[in-house]
Amino acid sequence: MAFSGMFSGDERKRKEQEMRAEGRLPPGQSLTLKWPVLHYGAVPSFDEAHWDFHVAGLVGQSLTLTWKEFNQLPRVERISDFHCVTRWSRFDNRWTGVAMREILARVKPKPEASYVLVHAEQGYTANVPLADLDRDNVLLATHHDGEPLTPDHGYPLRLIVPHLYAWKSVKWVRGFEFLSQDQAGFWEQNGYHMRGDPFKEQRFDTD
Ligand SMILES: Nc1nc2c(c(=O)[nH]1)N[C@H]1C(S)=C(S)[C@@H](COP(=O)(O)O)O[C@H]1N2
Ligand SMILES: [Mo]
């Protein structure tokens, strides 16, 4: 163990081959053992007095929760992989928070709601098909590996959509808008893919 640092490159390569063999490393990706921080703009500060979580649009029941109310929702734990379009993947992240299906059960999307625009602090948005949110391992995470999210990783709350590129895993999330038609979010307006499946290499709108 004393020399483990010397072998970290080998360790990374070994794990990368293992993930590739298991079909868990999408094409064009390489494994990272670190946890890079990646976002547009500055890290917003959390102001509980002005924070709410708001769901609107084509739902049977709109929803507005304070931070306290959000934390009273039932909690789940999910372990999943994370793939950034800039070509790094991070495996076996343990997230805890509120299942997306818990939110869906409360807001009851209308039959014509097929897309969701995810809204975050500072106007960041990402669009995700509703079918991609209605999955067991999609959650609104407050913790990673048992610790509260750090501010740069999305404190107090982020969305985790592990089967899509990580720009859809919106940090500092504040709510959802349910729509009948797909509406491009921040990166999607800048040429990124409307869905973003890493296993299909849906990086850009031309892919
Ligand atoms: N609000 C917000 N969420 C965001 C982003 C952003 O710019 N703003 N960047 C996305 C991108 S491109 C990636 S790869 C992941 C990175 O998450 P991490 O910094 O926790 O590794 O956050 C995503 N969520
Ligand atoms: Mo990313």
Describe what is shown at a glance:
The protein has 207 residues and is an alpha+beta fold.
What's the end-to-end separation, in Å? 44 Å
Q: Helical stretch count?
A: 5
Output the radius of gyration.
17 Å
Tell the overall outline.
globular
Q: Major β-sheet, in short?
A: 6 strands, mixed
Indicate the CATH architecture.
Alpha-Beta Complex
List key phrases describing it.
207 residues; alpha+beta; Sulfite Oxidase, Chain A, domain 2; 6-stranded mixed sheet; 5-stranded mixed sheet; 11 strands; 16% helix; 29% strand; globular; binds the ligand Nc1nc2c(c(=O)[nH]1)N[C@H]1C(S)=C(S)[C@@H](COP(=O)(O)O)O[C@H]1N2; binds molybdenum atom
Kindly describe this structure:
This protein is of the alpha+beta class and 207 residues long. It has a single domain, classed as Sulfite Oxidase, Chain A, domain 2 (Alpha-Beta Complex). It contains five helices and eleven strands; from the N terminus they run αβββαββαββαββββα. Strands 1, 4, 5, 8, 9 and 10 form a six-stranded mixed beta sheet that branches. A hairpin with a 2-residue loop joins strand 8 (139-144) and strand 9. The longest helix is centred in the N-terminal third of the chain and has 14 residues, at 8-21. The radius of gyration is 17 Å and the shape is globular. The model has no long low-confidence stretch (mean pLDDT 96). The ligand Nc1nc2c(c(=O)[nH]1)N[C@H]1C(S)=C(S)[C@@H](COP(=O)(O)O)O[C@H]1N2 binds at residues 35-40, 84, 120, 124, 153, 166-167, 169-172. Residues 35-40, 84, 120, 124, 153, 166-167, 169-172 line the site of ligand MTE.
